[in-house]
Amino acid sequence: MNFNILTIFPEIFEILNVGVISKSIDKKMISINTFDIRKNSINKHNHIDSKPYGGGEGMVMMAEPIVKTLSEVNKRKLGKVIYLSPQGKKLTQKKVVSFANKKNITLICGRYEGIDQRVIDKYVDEEISIGDFILSGGEYAAICLIDAVSRHIPGVLGNKDSYLKDTFSDGLLKGHLYTKPEIFESMQVPNVLLSGNHKEIEKWKIQNSLLQTLAKRPDLLDKKKLSKKQKKLLEELTSKAIL
Ligand SMILES: C[S@@+](CC[C@H](N)C(=O)[O-])C[C@H]1O[C@@H](n2cnc3c(N)ncnc32)[C@H](O)[C@@H]1O
User: Fold this and answer.
1) Do residues 209 and 175 make contact, with C-beta atoms less than 8 angstroms apart?
2) Which residues on neighbouring strands pair with residue 128, listed in sequence order?
3) Rounded to an integer, what distance in angstroms lies between the CA atom of residue 170 and that of residue 86?
4) From CA 147, how far away is CA 89, in angstroms rounded?
5) Hey, whose CA ends up nearest to atom 15 of ligand 1?
6) What per-residue string of b and e applies to 42-71 under the rule 16 or more CB within 10 Å gives b?
7) Which of 132, 134, 145 to mutate to test the pocket of ligand 1 (most atoms within 8 A of CB)?
8) 104 and 36 housed in the same domain
9) Are 52 and 98 a contacting pair, CB within 8 Å?
């Protein structure tokens, strides 16, 4: 999968040169190409921004440097053009999975007050937000998107079950996790996980996942269509809680 990134700070993306993403780049499963918008500034002072028409605070990134930079991306490799924006649709696991099916994605990172609306109107396929808060630049949102999408590209994670069983993948939170030692600061790993009884362990995992979802994100349970088994285990849990 190929990501094209339009930014005035290409160096920020060096952060992707670690961990699984870096390995996937080395193995050519992912390619990340940054395009420096400032190289297409339209004056000798390297300006890519200007004051907003009609007045108002801050500066706006001008259309021309962005569109010129966009034209540097090989047309065949442009793919879906996304503008990272707090006004966009929220990035969800569902969206992440749909993006992972694309061959090419082009990400436009805004700075200052944002980019000239005419770029969005003519060149952007979708605006994507990573949450209801304001970042100082789209680069951080782009990094989140790239990382989340890359996990779903076959071969990127050693164990494909990792992403299939992640929180949100089937609409629930993943349950509690434990590793060595069995006792840490007088806290014991739940006995069932040490029992070797695979059926009971599986049941505990499903129940713990349901319990965490109920406690931390009940809104997810409202949306989720539980399987018969999940329903039965949830009922078992809630009746125990009442007793
Ligand atoms: C300081 S913000 C501009 C915010 C803009 N003035 C507004 O009120 O909507 C600068 C850039 O950061 C990026 N950005 C900020 N918050 C974001 C979010 N929640 N998700 C995605 N991108 C975001 C966008 O690319 C935006 O152009």
Assistant:
1) yes
2) 89
3) 26
4) 18
5) 135
6) eeeeeebbeeeeeeeeebbbbbebbbebbe
7) 134
8) yes
9) no
Q: Is the dihedral of CA 146, 149, 151, 153 positive or negative?
A: negative
* pLDDT at residue number 242: 54
Task: Identify the sign of the CA torsion 63, 65, 68, 73.
Answer: negative
What's the pLDDT at 243?
47
Domain count, the chain: 2
What does the block give as tokens for 133? 């808060």
Separation of 8 CA from ligand 1 center, angstroms?
A: 14
Question: What DSSP character marks residue 220?
Answer: H
64 and 10, same structural domain?
yes
Query: Token pair of 18, please?
Result: 């670690």
Do residue 35 and residue 119 come from a single domain? yes
Q: How far apart are CA 23 and CA 29, in angstroms?
A: 9
For atom 10 of ligand 1, the residue with the nearest CA is: 111
- Report how far residue 141's alpha carbon sits from residue 31's, in angstroms, rounded to the nearest whole number: 18
Task: Give the separation between CA 32 and CA 8, rounded to whole angstroms.
Answer: 15
* Residue 233 CB contacts under 8 Å (≥ 6 apart), including other chains: 203, 206, 207, 210
Amino acid (1-letter code) at residue 105: I
Element (H, E) at 9: none
The residue ranges of the chain whose pLDDT is under 70 are 242-243
